[in-house]
Amino acid sequence: MALLSAASIYGAQHQKAMVTQVMVQMPYSTTSTKKNPDINWLYRQHISAKHLVRKNGENGVITYSNPELTATDLVRYVDKAGGLSFISTVLAELREATNFTDASHGVFKTAGVTDIQRLGYIYDVVLGDESQANVIFSELAKMDVVVRPASLNPTMPVDMASPVNNRWRIRVNAEIELDEL
Q1: In sequence order, what are the beta bridge partners of 170?
Q2: Sequence-ordered list of residues with C-beta below 8 angstroms from that of 152, at least 6 positions apart, any chain
């Protein structure tokens, strides 16, 4: 399980998910949404076993992403998880379970640089969690990557007149409003 389905396991269940979100490794699965419309299939190139949690469930072993992978995936697949405002609210509920220390050698290797920038921006500016934001920023600095300006909302067109957050190099092209917690 991934995204909102995994976040709900950690208690970040702002609203009940209407579908179960499952992340599988490419090549694409032979499953069909026509067979079971209650499962939302997502795909990624590589899923490291060290970022997965296995737990006994009612019908066998359930495998789901750890809190840090869940957080980065929520930012990466923002369009599949309900938009920036919704995922920010979920991240607010999930942040008690996350710890990004040593993420530069772990979960951040599976994320894009812009995903890390957006995650840091949300923790820093939107959630006001300065301590987690500082950890994310220092882990990003440890990575040997070029941090280029990126749009906060990747699904919206880039407006060069949008303000830029200099710390995260994020062009703020969307307004994020948290729901009542």
Answers
A1: 150, 165
A2: 84, 118, 121, 170, 171, 172, 173, 174, 176
Domain boundaries, the chain: 3-171
φ, ψ at 93 (rounded to 5°): -80, -25
Q: Nearest CA to 110 among 4, 7, 22, 25?
A: 25
pLDDT tens digits for 9-33? Answer: 777 765 566 666 666 666 665 566 6
Amino acid letter at 3?
Answer: L
Q: Strand 170-171 to strand 150-151: parallel, antiparallel, or no bridges (unpaired)?
A: parallel
pLDDT for 143 equals 95
- The overall pTM is greater than 0.90: no
Token couple for 151:
């749009």
Q: Identify the CA nearest to 69 among candidates 1, 145, 143.
A: 1
